[in-house]
Design brief:
The chain is 40% helix and 15% strand. By secondary structure, it is α/β, with parallel strands linked by helices. The chain has 2 domains: 179 residues, Rossmann fold; 158 residues, 3-Layer(aba) Sandwich (Rossmann fold). Helix 1 links the parallel strand 1 and strand 2.
Length: 360
Amino acid sequence: MIDNTKKIILSGGGTGGSVTPILAISKELKAQKENIDFTFIGTKNGPERGLVSSFDSFNIPFKTLPAGKLRRYFSWKNFSDLIKIIQAFFKSFKLLKDEKPDLIITAGSFASVPLVYAAYFKKIPVLIHQQDVRPGLANKLMAPLARIITVVFEKSLIDYGPKAVLTGNPLILPDTYYWPENINPSFYNSPKPLVLCIGGGTGAKGLNSLMYETKDKLKEVCNIVHLTGRGKNKEIVESDNYQVVDFLEHSKVLALIKRANLVVSRCGLGVLTELSALAKASILIPMPRSHQEDNALIFSKNDAGVYLKQNEIDGEILSKEISKLISDKKRLDELSENIYRTIKKEAEKKITGIIWEIIK
């Protein structure tokens, strides 16, 4: 009997941002076709192993490669990391020989670069997904070897040329949204608007400080749920209208986003995609001097979020902006409609269509 099972390697790591979109793609692929297998290649100590295991409903094997990062500034770590990259490159050949993949999918990670270069020598096709407006160095290094580069923003079509296809950003949304049991139940049906603050998966010290400064100024006008990041709420004091949580499961964060009247957020493409999918009015405060500023600028130009620069505001300015927005339903509705249109929807279906064309 001929085995028509297709094998795909998913590769990413170091941060959750390079992992969640390819997991969304794998879920859609599996929903469309049973005889397809995956292996995830990541780093030994990154968050991707936990993400894969928590998401995994079809037992994706997880394997690791040494991960090194090339920094764009002088660092002694560049020398030791270069050795790791060379080791990963040669180990990738054996891994590819054992796995015999039909395709490699990555969303930009230094953990993927050696693997993609080895795949090029073995003539294995590669699909790269570019999330952010600003191309990352890992994707720049891998792009010349890719068959297709799927992108979220039109600017990336210029950055990557004929290989680029505008698809939007893959996303996994739950079928049902459950209010988190450890969040004040009175916030759910309160006449006060709900404001949610998200600092990203690891939290954001600057954003946490700003949000903490607002709590007393906003106690009469809204309830606040503040997601600080693991271990970053130890010195924060709660009040009747202000609850702090360091970590929630992803599905519960989505439930809070859906219920919130306004979200104050960092600007990683993962959370921006979720805000767009759930049409949520937002104040966007990107990480200073990072790719997040480019993301925030695109949303601001589309009037799809209120863009505030962290180093130009304090708690007083932020609290006034929150008060102004939550008292203006028309403005909230405008932001909601605009953010919904900013990122194309059903990216996972578009990308899986491209994948079937590659591996048919």
